[in-house]
C-alpha cells in the first residue's frame, strides 16, 4: 500500500502493514522535512512551524500525555469538480480522520463524509482501506502545484506537565468567582427568597458522549452559560464537535474543565510521582481519599458551547418516541415516579415516616398570565419529589427530618437545587416559596466559610434527579447505571450535623 510513502519506514514498520502502528508511521512520514521544503515559500512560515510541531506530537503518540488537541484541516480549491477536505484531530491517545468530498455539477453540490479513529485497536479491512484512501488524498493536497488551504487549531501546551499547575490555578480561580457570586446572590435574596438558581438551572450536557457534566464542572458551565446568555447548556471539546461535523467559530474561547480518569493497573507504577502531585488537588472526591474509588489521573480540557460552533445540528428526533409538549412530558414524568402523592392537604410536604407526598389541590394555587397556577403546582411538587428520593429504598440520604434543625435546612437546599434542575429540564417556571426563607441563615452560616456545603448539596441534588431520570425513563437517550451519591460523613461531622 502506498509504496511511494514508505521510503523512510523501517523494515519492521513495513512488516506491520494493516496495523495502527503502521498507519501512524505512514502519517508521520507524510509530515517530513521533504514536505516542509516543498511548502516553504508557498505558505506562511508560522504554519510550517506548526506542522513541524504536529509531527513531534505524532512521534510521541500514545506515550506522552498532554491536555488539549491538535486539529489540521487541509482543503483543496473549490473550483475543481471534485474538491476534498482532509481533517486530522490529534489527542494524546487517539487520532480522528475525517474526509469530506464535494462534487460540483452545475448548481448542484453533493457531499460525502467518511471518518475513522486510529488508536491502539486492531484494524478491520475496511478501516485499513479507508486510511489508504485518506493518505493518498492527503498527499495530493499537500504536494499540489497550487497550495491547499491549511487551517490549524490547537490548544496544546508547550510543556504539558508544567501547564497542569497553570490550568489548575485558572480553574480554581474561576470556581472561586462562581462561589463568591452565589453566596453574594443568596445574601441579596434573603428577604424576597429569590435565589440564583430560581432563574434557571440547566444541566450541562455533552451532545457527543450523551453524558452530563457534574460537580464543579457543572457549576462553572452553568455560570458561563447564564452570564453569556447561551441558548443551550451543551458543551464539548473541539475534537468532539468535529465528530458532529461542527466547527468552533473563529475567535471563540473555550471554558476550562477538569476530567478525572480512573487509572488502569499497569499505569500506577509509571505515575507514582505524578500521582503525588495530583493527590494535592482539593477537587478529588472524599470517597477516593478513603480508597473507595480507583486511583485517578486528572487532565484539563477546554470545552465550547453549542452557540460557539457552526453547523451544529442537535439531531433528528426519535421517530418512535411520542411527541409531547412540556405539560404532557412533566405529567408522564410524575406518573412514572410511582410516588404516593395524596391531593387535598393544606400544605405541600413529604412525610418521610409514612413515605408519601401531601399536596394541596391545584385550585389553591394563585393564577396569573405570567405564572400559571399549573406551573406553580408543578414547581412545588418537583421540589417534594426530591425530598421523596431521600428515602432509604431510593437515594438513602440519611439526613435528619427534625424541622428547624441544621440537617433539615441542608436537605432543603438539596431539594431546592434538585427542584430547580427538574423545573428547568421541563421548561417549568420556578416558584420561590417565601416560607423557605427561614433556611437561608442556616445556609449562609456555613457557606461563608465553606462553599463545599453548596457543592455537596448540589452533588446530592444531581444524584436525586439522575435517579428520577433512570426511574422514569423520561430522557430520550441512554443513561449510565450510576449508584446514588453518598453523603460525605466527614463534612456532616464538620458542620455539626447528626446523621440518623
Q: What order do the helices and strands come in, and which of them pair?
A:
Elements: H1 11-15, H2 20-30, H3 33-39, H4 45-59, E1 70-75, E2 82-91, E3 94-105, E4 108-118, H5 125-142, E5 149-154, H6 160-188, E6 205-206, E7 211-212, H7 215-227, E8 235-237, H8 238-243, E9 247-248, E10 255-262, H9 267-270, H10 272-278, H11 286-289, E11 296-305, E12 309-310, H12 326-337, E13 341-343, E14 349-351, E15 356-359, H13 373-388, H14 406-425, H15 440-447, H16 452-472, H17 489-494
Parallel strand pairs: 13-15
Antiparallel strand pairs: 1-2, 1-5, 2-3, 3-4, 6-7, 8-11, 9-12, 10-11, 14-15
Helix pairs in contact: 2-5, 12-16, 13-14, 14-16
Short overview:
The chain is α+β, with helices and mostly antiparallel strands. Helices cover 40% and strands 17% of the residues.
